Amino acid sequence: MAEVGTSPSRESQFLDAARSGSKNPGVGVPVVVTLVEAPACHLCEDAKSALVVIAQSYPMTVSVLSVLDEPGRTLMQEHRAPMSPLVLLDGEYFSSGRLPRRKLEKRLKKAQQGEIR
Questions:
Q1: pTM of the model
Q2: Mean pLDDT lowest among 24-28, 76-80, 113-117
Q3: CATH architecture of 8-112
Q4: What is the DSSP secondary-structure string of 61-74?
């Protein structure tokens, strides 16, 4: 897995990898994944690395926000996330803290098959 950082140049590498990696382009509607991260958060780094890998199999668009910026802080408060990273799927709460990979893959598979949206 590639190490992913939060600087603008490395952030764009992360987003490009997540967007372009799908093995099934055009199958299903891409899920919009929003990740709100905190500085020096090992769970956030782990979640970003996992999303890069998962994006190889499922259509998704990933955006990463910082909890230090207003949009990220607002989402953390709105969803009452107890810890970072906060993960939203299509704007709805999915998880906070350690990313549940299997649960995410199940959800993405259902979305890819058109079962949920």
A1: 0.77
A2: 24-28
A3: 3-Layer(aba) Sandwich (3.40)
A4: EEEEEETTSHHHHH
